[in-house]
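Budget justification note: compute hours in this period were largely spent on complex prediction jobs such as the one shown. Inputs:
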Amino acid sequence: MKILVTGGAGFIGSAVIRHIIAATKDHVINLDKLTYAGNLESLDAVSADARYVFEQVDICDRVELDRVFQTHQPDAVMHLAAESHVDRSIDGPGEFIQTNLVGTYTLLEAARVYWSQLDVERKSAFRFHHISTDEVYGDLGEGSEHLFTEQTPYDPSSPYSASKAGSDHLVRAWQRTYGLPTVVTNCSNNYGPYHFPEKLIPLVILNALEGKELPVYGQGTQIRDWLFVEDHARALYTVLTQGQPGETYNIGGHNEKKNIDVVLTICQLLDELHPMSPVVPHASLIKYVQDRPGHDVRYAIDAAKIKKDLGWVPQETFESGIRKTVQWYLDNLAWCKRVQDGSYRRERLGLA
Ligand SMILES: NC(=O)c1ccc[n+]([C@@H]2O[C@H](COP(=O)([O-])OP(=O)(O)OC[C@H]3O[C@@H](n4cnc5c(N)ncnc54)[C@H](O)[C@@H]3O)[C@@H](O)[C@H]2O)c1
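Corresponding output:
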């Protein structure tokens, strides 16, 4: 297969591409605008492979999308390109509407026109896989026993989750109206290597190593269901190759944790693995800060369908995955430094 991956220079997209190149014989076209969140250095392990090619393209640019489809003739699209950080969506929702809604619409139209011209066999085998989030389902609230299933009604809280919810609806409408063979996945919070340091887990690790405060929203009681990013990459490839067109699959790690417990676990691991930090114990750096507006209390995924229908289960527990993650950051401080000081972008823009 030739797979067009959008957002392949991001956190999850790069894990998907590393997985495809390492574990399959498929070819990958990585289509990415390279916003602040896109980092080609996350693809150093595969970028020299003959089965990998990069196209710097904005998913809102229809002319360029048509060129990419015609040039590379993909058999499938895995659509991960998005603005993805909730705090940024609160400060400036415009980019989220543009990329997540207008961009997804533009990509769907380019894919539909390309797909409609394929021969019968390639047309029925084609897949448009839209990668989304459990945040579209809204807030389960504290003390509830419920989990998000594929039938849970949408009730997004932030500009980010609302824009993702809208993009999910567009994809399903393109299946129903035009017959484009789509699959949608909604996944819980990911963590693991190459995660941009504005997100909770890498932020805590890197601040702790420098003896800086560890900001925790509110009392840190928000509950998230954590999934190791490489487990997500395996799940996505499974859905792409075995999922039924028109279906939705929830993906989760069965790892519900309060944010404060995640932070404390990281601190304990750093106490063990990096006792020479400037401030030890690392937990003494925790600082409770004003909560995010509209902050959802609890997300939790029921991943029974993907297990039953496609046989996917995560390979990592939270304990094994978070240990690997902390160790990866300790072993890859050069990657982190180039993200933190902006050199990964400056060199790309010719400003170094
Ligand atoms: N991170 C999570 O925990 C999580 C969980 C569930 C679902 N998701 C979804 O998975 C996808 C990937 O998430 P991520 O954490 O890897 O995000 P990310 O922010 O790390 O990466 C996004 C990538 O998309 C690219 N991009 C942004 N706008 C673009 C545009 N207009 N055209 C082309 N490329 C563009 C960026 O350059 C970047 O490489 C997103 O759709 C997100 O909603 C993320």
